[in-house]
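Hi Prof. W.,

I finally got the Methyl-accepting chemotaxis protein prediction working! I wasn't sure whether to trim anything, so I left the full sequence exactly as given:
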Amino acid sequence: MALALKTSSHAVSLSDSLDERLSVAHKRIETAFLEGGSTLVSVMEMVTGLIGTLNRFTQTLDADTADSTIAGLERTVSELAMLPDLAAARHDSFDEIAQLCADAFRHVEDMRETFRYLKVFATTVKITGAGISEFAEFADEIRDRIHSGADEINHFAVELEKMQTELGNARGLAAGILGDFRKTIPEIVANLGENARRMRTQHEQMAKIATEARSVAEAVQRKIATALSALQIGDITRQRIEHVQQSFVMLDQYADTDDGRALSDAEHVGVKAAVFHLAYAQLDETLSEFREKCASIFTTISSFSSDASRILALREDLSGSRSAEGGRVLVMMNRDLGHACELVHGVEGRSAQSTALAGSVVGAVHSLITSIETIRGIKTDISYMALNSNLRCSRLGDEGRSVNVVSGELRNFAAKLETPADEVVDRMHRVERAAEALNSGSGSHLEDIGLPLANARDAIAAVSDEMEQSLAALGEEGNAVFSRIAAAVRSLDFENSLGEVLDECVAIAGEMAMDAGTPAPPPSSADLSNRIYAIYTMVHERNIHAAIFPADGQETSDPSEERSTQSDEEFFDDALF
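And this is what came out:
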């Protein structure tokens, strides 16, 4: 910057010094605001990531999600609470079947006793009719049928005893299941019910805290956006420094033109004074605006610290809300569901075995009913054979009288088989119905509760894991945001780091303007004025120029009026055009 318009050595020294300080200020502003912008963008990215994590976290705690999880759990708890009653019903059913079998066995014993008497009478028939040739074969036939019936009822008794043994095993299994359930299930159900209520309350509290944390993070996001917008003051300041530097270059260029060389000494001084006063006025207002906006930026950025601290405090509240008596609610629920799963898994084998035994009872009963019907057929055969014997004896007269008496008794005792046989058949049909009901009823599927229990446990575990991961992510991201914001607050104090060099520029420009005297540009310098005026990009620059170095065609506007109707953001948006 030669400032060739007859400049003194002191003025040259000042201009060189101003040129050097303006270059330093320009470089520092460019570097500082680029780095500041990068810092704020990185903070913005971190905060955006934090908000994303909080959104995922609040979705985990969403009322619909929580209600769905809790509703599923409550259904499982309800089914779990039914297990003791189901086990008791199954145990009672086996007791009922066992009692029916015991009743049937008493009637079987009556039939066996009757067959013992029938054997005696069959032998008596054979002895009594020994003297009658036509009765010998007949007596043997009656005796064979009676022995066949006796064998059949004995076989029936053996099979009934086997079934009773299996029923005893089934009753033992059912009693064991019932005992396990009565001892454990009520406590598990009570714990799960209480913890489901705690979970709902805890989720509501955590959702409220997470929502507040997200609101704070979103507020930080908005503040960062405001600060990023306000960083335009760096670009504005840099441009205005460039415009001042260009005005000096244009002044030197003007000195080498015909118009410049034609100026008198006084006119030289007047033009130079106009440019120096113009540079001082531009730099002074630039510094004022720079300080105002930087103070606003610093205030905004400084507030990040309290916001970050609030986020960290809320994160700690979230972690604290995960605690409950005896441990965290979800962990406690997972533990209780685990106990329930282990219990149900432990009884699945016994339950399946007892179900199989109930199924085998149905098959055994069918066989026993067939067997008792065979016995009834034998009883009918004996009755007809005895009746036939009576008829033959009647034809023989006195010779067949003794055989006739025995045959009559045979018929009487054979008739005694009817009632116990009916009772046995009745008991067997009742056993059959009870066993079929046991197989098809809800009590036959005690082991089916294992699947919903496992599903509930998986759902709780998934929610717990997701919350743990989200809390861990919040911990890491919260710390990172806090550290980054703390660093940003230290590094983005632009007024502190740049104010001094701008102060020096204004001071030197002020001294140059004062040394230059009163601005008095001649009309012939209008071309220089218009050329300088043309480089401006901001309204304020033009207004200052028009007030100090006016020329034809230059328009002005009232900056105070424009400021009164514009926000800071609007000012920066509209300042460049």
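The longest helix spans residues 133-230. Does that look reasonable to you?

Thanks,
D.
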